[in-house]
Write a structure and sequence with these properties.
The chain is mostly beta strands. The chain is built from 2 helices and 24 strands. It has 2 domains: 137 residues, no CATH class; 140 residues, no CATH class. This is DUF2169 domain-containing protein.
């Protein structure tokens, strides 16, 4: 039996997972949590939070926003950049509307955020969108983005009774059945270049946070779980599963390659003052397999998650690596440190 041994001051974890054709791997994870100061400088917390073993939800599982995905993910083909918490106006004092931008190297994503607003009907003007109320903060939750369900809360919904890209949101309506005496809440978060302009208009949900596994953006990569899979492949994963399923960030928050030390992430419009500029620090993470014949084999661990918590001024870095399963491996030492682990460790 292979033993996973931590050689780090930071939380590490190892577990076994079966990939295609039932091939077994040791999945290694390490996590570093850092605090930023007013200049954006990052310093590791003196007391490091443990790895999160299960998804953390705002409220009920699969019926509220996913706040923090489990750290025990088998594999991601690139880095997830996630932003959680609340955004505050770039100027002191409440604002009705402002822009928020996330830059990952050369990639940029912009959102428009609003205070509470709603659709109301009048006999002469039809449906109109109210002016947003000034606010001091907007929570980056998918409940505040476009989407939702029709009718009262219930266990199951038929096709057409919910908005698949974001069943958690607000503003989704059946225009033909809308009650003209009712006020309908409108999304407070939207893509900067695709604003709501018409009652009953469907738009892509805006957000920077992790996506749950049941939305089409992730479900398209889950693979085929049909009778043939049950008869010939189960319990192994489907052959057509794409590892991008495990990436929880929206696609436009996934860089083309794993991020590394020195890469820059910037956030604008999330707080008063200048944009927040974060330079990823030089952490090394690796697993060293020790074999029965006393040989050693080093496996690099890649930075697969960067989670920026605006409410706590924290950045979480998660590193991940894979080691082919082999009974002849006695142990795997997992290292994670600001400097390369000593030669011969």
């Amino acid at each position: 039996m292979t033993v996973i041994v931590s050689q780090s001051l930071y939380p590490v974890q190892g577990f076994e997972h079966r990939f295609y054709h039932g091939n077994r791997y040791h999945c290694l994870s390490a996590k570093v949590t850092l605090q930023w100061d007013t200049e954006g400088r990052l310093t590791p917390l003196a007391r490091q939070p443990d790895l999160v073993l299960n998804d953390v939800w705002l409220d009920e599982e699969n019926r509220s926003s996913l706040l923090y995905p489990s750290d025990l993910i088998p594999y991601k083909p690139t880095t997830d950049v996630l932003v959680t918490g609340s955004v505050r106006p770039p100027e002191d004092g409440p604002l009705p509307t402002w822009y928020v931008a996330l830059r990952i190297g050369e990639q940029e994503k912009r959102l428009r955020v609003h205070g509470p607003r709603h659709w109301r009907h009048s006999l002469l003007g039809g449906w109109s969108l109210s002016e947003p109320e000034p606010v001091s903060a907007v929570a980056l939750l998918y409940e505040n983005a476009y989407g939702g369900t029709l009718g009262p809360l219930r266990e199951h919904y038929e096709e057409g009774e919910f908005y698949p890209p974001n069943p958690l949101g607000c503003g989704f309506v059946d225009r033909s059945r809308a009650d003209t005496a009712q006020l309908y809440p409108a999304a407070q978060i939207e893509a900067w270049d695709a604003p709501l302009v018409a009652f009953g208009q469907d738009v892509e949900p805006g957000g920077f946070g992790p996506l749950p596994g049941f939305v089409p953006a992730r479900q398209q990569y889950a693979g085929t779980y049909d009778e043939q899979w049950r008869q010939t492949v189960a319990p192994n994963i489907p052959q057509d599963m794409d590892m991008r399923y495990w990436n929880t960030a929206p696609a436009d928050q996934q860089p083309p390659a794993f991020l590394k030390a020195g890469d820059v992430i910037e956030l604008a419009g999330t707080r008063p003052g200048p944009p927040l500029r974060l330079v990823l620090p030089p952490f090394d993470a690796a697993g060293v397999a020790h074999w029965e014949d006393e040989s050693r084999e080093t496996h690099a661990m890649m930075l697969d998650t960067v989670l920026i918590d605006l409410d706590r001024d924290r950045v979480t870095l998660r590193f991940h690596g894979l080691v082919d399963f082999d009974e002849r491996i006695k142990r795997i030492n997992v290292y994670c440190a600001p400097t390369t682990y000593p030669a011969g460790s």
